[in-house]
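Q: Here's a chain of 184 amino acids. Please give me its 3D structure as tokens.
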Amino acid sequence: MRIYVRYGYVMKIPSGIWVNPKRWSKKYWITIPAIPGDEQPQLINKKEKLTQLTRFIDDELKKVEDRSVIYQDWGVGKVKEFNKPPKATKQEDPANFFALIERYKAEHRFSKYRLKHLSVIVRCLMRFELYKRAKDKSTFRLNIHKITPDLIGAMSGHKEGSKVFAQYRYIDEDIKREVVNLLE
């Protein structure tokens, strides 16, 4: 692609868009056949992408005050920037255990004593998460979708096969079901 930068300097930049040489016009633009076929939609997409790339580079050129410093390396970098998708913004994990508990506490009315008990449980869970991170030297995070019987056993100190674990198993399933309903 050719971009006019300043008087006497037209920059040639590889765009990364390949088009059959017989489809280039004398004015360096893509010619699209009038007869519909397999090649026509591909050429239309390439022409649109090339138009977007040209607009992007023109906008970037307008932002530069001193055009005497613009050379081919600058153009190649801008083409790479155009072709590289933007980085996704980091969003809070919807299954963040502690955010779910806070949402649960906000949506339900509890007595001050019940809130105190919940805060004690949350504090214990946070300590357990810190303990697992320090012990395993990993980035362990409590996640509602990844709670397993082994993890519950590690929290409570009981093995999966013990009578105490079996006695309170239904409570774990009820809490999971309620939190999943809260997510929806």
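Q: Can you summarize the key feature?
A: The first strand starts at residue 2 and ends at 6.
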